[in-house]
Amino acid sequence: MLKEYKSVQEVVGPLMIVEGVEGIKYEELVEIQTQTGEKRRGRVLEIDGDRAMIQLFEGSAGINLKDTTVRFLGKPLELGVSEDMIGRIFDGLGNPIDKGPKIIPEKRVDINGSPINPVSRDYPSEFIQTGISTIDGLNTLVRGQKLPIFSGSGLPHNNVAAQIARQAKVLGDDAKFAVVFGAMGITFEEAQFFIDDFTKTGAIDRAVLFINLANDPAIERISTPRMALTCAEYLAFEKGMHVLVILTDLTNYAEALREVSAARKEVPGRRGYPGYLYTDLSQIYERAGKIKGKPGSITQIPILTMPEDDITHPIPDLTGYITEGQIILSRELYKSGIQPPIFVIPSLSRLKDKGIGKGKTREDHADTMNQIYAGYASGREARELAVILGDSALSDADKAFAKFAENFDKEYVNQGYETNRSILETLDLGWKLLKVIPRTELKRIRTEYLDKYLADKD
After folding, report:
1. What are the residue boundaries of the ATPase F1/V1/A1 complex alpha/beta subunit nucleotide-binding domain, all occurrences included (predicted)?
2. Is residue 244 part of a domain?
3. Are 48 and 95 members of one domain?
4. What span, in angstroms and rounded, lies between the C-alpha atoms of 353 and 317?
5. Residue 17, SS3 per DSSP
6. Whether 293 and 426 share a structural domain
7. Is residue 359 domain-resident?
8. What CATH number did the domain enclosing 158 receive?
9. Cβ-proximal residues to 161 (8 Å cutoff; 6+ apart), any chain
10. What is the pLDDT along the chain (458 residues), one digit of tens a residue?
11. Which of 319, 354, 389 is the last residue of a domain?
12. For residue 192, what are the domain limits?
């Protein structure tokens, strides 16, 4: 039996304290009716004896302690899921905001999900083509992987996210592919950019969008990624689809966590973030993966902006521990006009070796990837040396590597946001650029591949 309480004792920011409660549970959904009859929602955040702390989703402005009624609904926050969600746009709490009809759910699912048993996890091994050479060729994305993008304030991570959402696909697989896009704390202009881009290119037909704007309650940001992942789990593990989940911006999510933690008067951790930030982020990231015996999969690309471009900041630092690599956007490349400004040297995909090679991409992929990395690193060192000592101090090999690095930035990295390169085009372009380097210096590629591919690329 549902009970109503009129024992609100305190409201602090997004939190409400109710006394004299009994039989309630952690994460239980709450309905609050104000003195004006307005209804708001919240969830149980903490229970101490007969006292409950409630986190309000719509904020606490205008609440009268004496006349406010609190009703505990006996269930957690849920999302009604259906295949009809594809092509639709929702807010951070799962309500349609695209003026379309209401979704008739097939069932309602707890947004907190349930952890995947490690024994039943399948190892990621299938290549996903994003159409971006620096990712496909050098930091390959694999189905079931979580590969974040580390950006900075003002860098074009939104363009990269939209490009991946438009272009990503699983090669040689007839299974349906969907994109679930979760945006937290973005501006109206950014939201409109994504909606317009998805609509114009037709990507909306295979996408589900969950959008939480900067002027929406910060607390809603905490539920947005969980709503997106709940939808993704339904499409992947019950409908057999390959789902790519793009979450932006995790920094705004962490700021919302910090706000709630401060309101709860918790002892702060590094830079004021709660001590459980690692645990909370892992609950999001670890919902990616594949399950043995099920055809679907969830691949995650979380995007976060590093405050002051500091990669040691708690958010990117902890994210790097949990996820399988990172794609890093460079302010230096961005200022040089390179699009997308992905800096390949510090970028890493820890599972790239599992998704490339014969039968997946091409037999020469691993060798050319290693050689391009080595050549680009040597070329950047040579360019720095030339600045200090002059070109005359460089050997012929150094000059060749410096030329390769210059061409690599201009042709390989700088492909723009509209170009969709196949993996074969990316590999062929790599061979074309490697022709600048003397064959004797191509020490990371097997002789049979040099004989087979190098002579053909003019």
Report:
1. 131-349
2. yes
3. no
4. 24
5. strand
6. no
7. no
8. 3.40.50.12240
9. 149, 181, 194, 246, 248, 301, 303
10. 677 899 999 888 888 999 999 888 888 899 999 888 888 888 898 899 999 999 888 778 888 888 899 999 988 889 999 999 999 999 998 999 998 899 999 999 999 888 788 899 999 888 999 999 999 999 999 999 999 999 999 999 999 999 999 999 887 766 688 999 999 999 999 999 999 999 998 889 999 999 999 988 888 899 999 999 999 999 999 999 999 999 998 999 999 999 888 888 888 889 999 999 999 999 999 999 999 988 899 999 999 999 999 999 999 999 999 999 999 999 999 999 999 999 999 999 999 999 999 989 999 999 999 999 999 999 999 999 888 888 888 889 999 999 999 999 999 999 999 999 999 999 999 999 999 999 999 999 999 999 998 875 55
11. 354
12. 78-354
| Token duo for residue 427 | 């590999």
With respect to residue 428, please indicate whether it lies within any of the assigned structural domains: yes
What length is written for the chain? 458
- For 309-366, the DSSP string reads G-TTSHHHHHHHHHSSEEEEE-HHHHHTT-SS-EEEEEEEETTGGGS-STTTS-TTHH
- Tell me the three state secondary structure of residue 29: strand
For residues 324 and 409, is the Cβ–Cβ distance under 8 A? Answer: no
* Number of domains composing the chain: 3
**235 and 103 in a common domain:** yes
Check: CB of residue 138 under 8 Å from CB of residue 166.
Answer: no
Buried residues in 268-307 as b, exposed as e (16+ CB within 10 A): eeeeebbeebbebbbbbbbbbbbbeeeebbbbbbbbbbbb
- Looking at the fold, whether 43 and 142 belong to one and the same domain comes out as no
In a domain, 188, yes or no: yes
Same domain, 347 and 295: yes
pTM of the model: 0.91
- Note whether 114 and 250 are same-domain residues: yes
How many CB atoms sit inside 10 A of residue 239's CB? 18
**Are 258 and 325 found together in one domain?**
yes
Looking at the structure, tell me whether residues 299 and 343 fall in a common domain: yes
Identify the H or E element spanning 142: strand 141-142
